[in-house]
Amino acid sequence: MGRRLGAITVALGLALAMAACSPLYGGKPEKLHNPEKKKKPPEAAAATVEIKYVEDCSANFRDDPKRVNQQSGISNTLVGDGDTALQQSSKAKDPPSQAELIRVAIDKYRNALVKDPYNAEATLKLAIAYDLVYRKGCALAMLKRLASLSANPKFAKQANRNIDSVTDNTQWFKGYRKDAISSVGR
From 3, 100, 102, 167, which residue has the greatest number of CB atoms within 10 Å? Predict the structure, then answer.
């Protein structure tokens, strides 16, 4: 019985060895070829969008107001409201919301100038708001008005402070910086 068991074990071992050496699914595997590499399609060049500024301005900022009852407190409040609208516009996600908030800011600054036509801060901020909506002509007109305010001794200190901020802040009036600087007389 021991011999029989030994012979069976040897036969079983040989059968397993032969099975291990033969292909599992029969025959040689077919040779696979690597796929041809395709060229990536050319990427479309990003079209540069040219910013078109509106050169003209229909508003007349050069006229001096006749017998104005200055309401500086109301004017300063409206400037603060305009500042809030501009800050919210930079945080708005979609362009229509941004445009609407900038329009609100322009209205607030314009109303501030109606209440106090000599408010240098409202004049500068209205110029900045016009710049945001590519109204170059109106922005330059407001900067020229700021320069004329600096010629008046009563308003020169505040106007000069705002003019200095125009020359110091390179983020404003990027597309026509030289024109803006010359408009404020620097």
Answer: 102
Cα(184)–Cα(175) distance, rounded to whole angstroms?
16
Alpha-carbon distance 15 to 164, whole Å?
Answer: 97
Q: How many angstroms separate the CA atoms of 135 and 105, rounded?
A: 14
| Greatest extent of the chain over all pairs of C-alpha atoms, in Å | 132
- Number of C-alpha atoms within 13 angstroms, CB side, residue 10? 6
Confidence class for position 126, pLDDT limits 50, 70, 90? very high
**pLDDT (tens digit per residue) in 65-80:** 555 567 778 888 888 9
- Look up residue 130 and give its two tokens: 């016009």
Delineate the domains of the chain, giving CATH numbers in brackets.
Answer: 72-183 (1.25.40.10)
Q: How far apart, in Å, are the Cα atoms of 184 and each of 22, 24, 32, 80, 83?
A: 92, 88, 75, 23, 22
Measured distance CA(150)–CA(143) in Å, rounded = 11
